[in-house]
Specification:
alpha+beta
């Protein structure tokens, strides 16, 4: 006996935006944040000038993500003044790619 499957787009949107999906995305982002903190502790000085870089990682999540605004999303950010320099490097400092490596490490 053959089975016939037909996707229900309305149900799919409900699943992709469900509270449990947002919670799962948030939990995954928290794992990335923890990995980023660990990597940053190895590569970024904690002196007074830059010491808050590690403290400035934040996780945000919600619904209406994706190209059609119909999916749960989460992101990890760092808005410290040196975050872009640490991530991408400068002419005097090699890139550390903290967030990119943390994403890989958190798998």
């Amino acid at each position: 006996m053959a089975a016939n499957f037909q996707w229900d787009y309305a149900g799919g949107r409900e699943m992709l935006n469900a509270p449990w999906m947002v919670a799962e995305m948030h939990a995954r982002a928290e794992r990335v944040k923890e990995a980023a903190i660990g990597l940053a502790a190895e590569h970024v000085s904690t002196d007074d000038r830059y010491g808050h870089y590690i403290d400035d990682f934040e996780v945000d999540s919600g619904t209406e993500g994706g190209i059609h605004h119909d999916r749960a999303w989460a992101r990890v950010t760092n808005d410290n003044e040196i975050a872009a320099y640490v991530e991408f490097g400068t002419s005097k400092m090699t890139e550390q790619a903290i967030l990119r490596r943390a994403l890989d490490a958190a798998g």
